[in-house]
Amino acid sequence: QVQLVESGGGLAQAGDSLRLSCAASGRTFGSYTMAWFRQAPGKERDVVATVTGGGDNTYYADSVKGRFTISRDNAKNTVYLKMNSLKPEDTAVYYCAAGAPGIPRSLASWYAYWGQGTQVTVSS
Fold first, then answer.
1. What is the pLDDT of residues 21-51, one digit of tens each?
2. b/e for 54-89, b at 16 or more Cβ within 10 A?
3. Which of 20, 106, 108, 119 could form a disulfide with 81 if both were Cys (CB 3.0 to 4.6 A apart)?
4. φ/ψ bin of 109: left (φ > 0), alpha (ψ from -120 to 50), beta (otherwise)
5. Residue 29 phi, psi dihedral angles, 5° rounding
């Protein structure tokens, strides 16, 4: 069982930066593929970025590529999402998720564990 707790969301202006953190419980954190998803009102939950257990392989949605960076610190059981050059369209609830190695990384249904979400609101 893995419990995930996100933090770091809030209000920002276009062009600002925010860093989200996701603290995980459990002794096997380093074995999980970790991901950030986001969901805007009335829309589906979409993948933002993923990182493999060792941190050596990352994936980004086209909409955030070059602006967002996912990273992890397995010693601290924490995954991060650094968001630069924020845009109003980045406004959403951001969720941290953990899944088994080798899963289809962009599909939310494959992730077994989810955090409660943190709101990010970007004004123009």
1. 999 998 789 999 999 999 999 999 999 999 9
2. eeeeebbbeebeeebbbebebeebbbbbebeebeee
3. 20
4. alpha
5. -55, -40
